[in-house]
């Protein structure tokens, strides 16, 4: 059963970067950097129609947040546990739910239990918390070998079949829920987590907070493998992410249409799932960098806000900022200020577009709960619908650099009246709809 987060619009923040404390030379220990989420930033979120925020790793770590040192303590670079508790309270007062990163597959080398192993070797009470071979060595010359995440030995894999490890992690979740009041957890590299562990975690969470939302990171493979009634509530939709930019760059709407039909059509393999959709995040290039022409962004975001699933905006992309991963991820995780964009007309236009799409999604319920139906596909034009209980929303996209006439029929009775969103025009359906749509633009009809 889907919980209340199914209707949300997400804002994703890589917190250490946003607060300007990722680079060690910028750190100010014991200063509340979370206060950067001030009244102006909260208003910015509310104005965009944001109803949930996903905060990238916030717990004590060595560097980037995914190398955890302490699951029970907010990273000192960001502030204190009390600072975070106050932030959650403020966000809740503004009707914004809070989701945090749960990095349960691995820890950093400075994690307290691993440090005990480094000191005491096979005499450590915590050697069974990790997958360790004392008959081998490693590149750090620790005198033993251990499993690192995908060859990254600064990230030490936890032994998730160990009951003490599970108790430590589950008690941390209980602290996050009871002390901080979080509403959900995004499970880092969920594709690496044993299915039995996910089931135990889900059962535990159901007992402490039945509506705690659990979303897993999965890049390849079958999303059904980690999403289900006894598994997670959602997963990152990387298949759609890829199609959103490449179908525009290649001027080939057949690509994204195929993926949408495969996932959400009448026989779609994920039509009963509520997946987490995005156009960029902390691990991939910014969408404004990926597109060959920024005029594509209007249609890309129209798709994001009108296809099945939960839309998410990565902080800064509402202003169409660029970011190329290149050698490191630093360019994807910048410190930002609202003042950086207030006089930038192009950035403000992108923000206005996203605000309008968010408003539209909230005003047309079928865009949240409607079934997906493909209507018409050409290389540069795409028409699809969301429909539920005789309510329809028709999304029409034109990728061409000139206006285009589009004609299509719907499986409905004559006489149904459609409005064009943000327009006074009324269309009385009589067997077909014929419209002219501007270059690089979209139209939404609804009844």
TrEMBL record:
Keywords on record: Glycosidase, Hydrolase
Every Glycosyl hydrolase family 13 catalytic domain range: 8-361
Protein name: Alpha amylase, catalytic domain protein
SMART domains xrefs: Aamy (SM00642)
Stored Pfam families: Alpha-amylase
Biological processes annotated in GO: carbohydrate metabolic process
Organism of derivation: Clostridium celatum DSM 1785
Keyword Ribonucleoprotein in record: no
Taxonomic classification: Bacteria, Bacillati, Bacillota, Clostridia, Eubacteriales
MF (Gene Ontology): hydrolase activity, acting on glycosyl bonds
